[in-house]
Amino acid sequence: MVFIKNFGALLFLFFWGTIISQEKQLQRANQAFEEHGHSKARNIYKKILRKGYHDKELYEKIGDSYYFDGKLEKAAHWYEELVKRHPSQIKYEHLKRYAHCLKHIGSYIDQDVTLQKLFINKIQNLDNDLASIVPVNYLQSENLSMRFVVNALSINSKYSEYSPSFYNNELVFASSRSSKSFSSVVNDWNNQPFLDLYYTTKGQKKITRLKGDINTKFHESSAVFSKDGKTVYFTRNNYSKGKLKKSTGGTTLLKIYKGEYSKGKWINIEELPFNSNEYSIAHPALSPDGRLLYFASDMPGSLGESDLYVCSINEDGSFGKPKNLGSSINTSGRETFPYISDKGNLFFASDGHKGLGGLDIFMATQNDTGNFDIYNLGEPINSNKDDFTFIIDESNHRGYFASNRKGGMGDDDIYGFKQIISFPDQKLRSKPVKKLERIFRLQPVKVETTSL
């Protein structure tokens, strides 16, 4: 009898210790996830799953970790498991992400009866959220496609390259390729080196890191330069004077920094005064006259996951109060990576407006009412993958953008293009659809590799 009691006590302690251990592992994983250490977090989540725990949070977080890393094929698998195992508990946000993933990999909502029923039960009135996932074939009917000839660039590597920017006769871009300075440092997001800013001169193959204090051992990207070439605005992790800062929730967010050019180096790096430790401000763009600064942010008051904002740059160098660009631009999804052309056209990436999958590139022109008319640039600029960081020199109809489409060398690649057909006069607005439409399947586009 004593043996049975002792054995029972030991068994209880064993299971209790196992539960405590799993809770600690889950806490570690959640902390890593909140700090954008997605790769580290999902390894822990998967380890917990292998031990027989199948809580819906595990499937949500693993799916989300792949989704936020842009690995939508893998995210789709885990969201599918979530739908199968916990159909009555699934949240709308995960249905939406699952639908984005299906669209990204060329699948169809109308082939998945379970998903159809879940959408019908969760959503009474289809709005722009769902319209962005299941668009009508307006791109095809309006013949927006094939206005550009696209070519991959030889500057791409097996790592990530994006955020091209014009600077004199050079092309500046962000890359996670290993550098001699910080080659041993990798981030927990995707186990790649952190992003730095590089440049290459047109017509040459040499690639060089920007010199001075602009690059650190953490992320730098999305640079834009003043017309005189003496000032740069760029995105960096919340890192200054050797210290990495975090929000109250323990997350290192993004900020916009400003630098000055002197004797071949970028110096006097300082963050903009309206940055915050509690939300991200990133991806700056300048108006042609240099008096307006556009950027993306998830600050309080945003309509979606990230919105586009604008603020004035005053003559004394101070900044006006950031202003949201409004609901004709911003949706409940992501609007990000703005660019203002010399003609004053706004280009940006969005997964909230109707598109072909993932982030698509749009052009916005302001009409007489003060609102914006929206164009989707169509194929081959856009694909069913993420397409973003579009820039164009409208004087010669050439430019660059980034994409993680199939056929590239790395995670994200930079592509060059030449515009061969001008934009149409008709304005294409994002309107809600009244029923689920069959998702538009893209045809493959041949892309050749060239130098700049």
TrEMBL record:
Source organism superkingdom: Bacteria
InterPro entries with a match to the protein in the record: 6-blade_b-propeller_TolB-like, TPR-like_helical_dom_sf, TPR_rpt, WD40
TPR repeat start and end residues: 56-89
Keywords from the named record: TPR repeat
SUPFAM superfamilies xrefs: DPP6 N-terminal domain-like, TPR-like
UniProt cross-references to Gene3D superfamilies, sorted A to Z: Tetratricopeptide repeat domain, TolB, C-terminal domain
Keyword match Iron: no
One Pfam family cited in the UniProt record for this chain: PD40
Identification of the protein by name: Uncharacterized protein
Species of origin: Aquimarina algicola
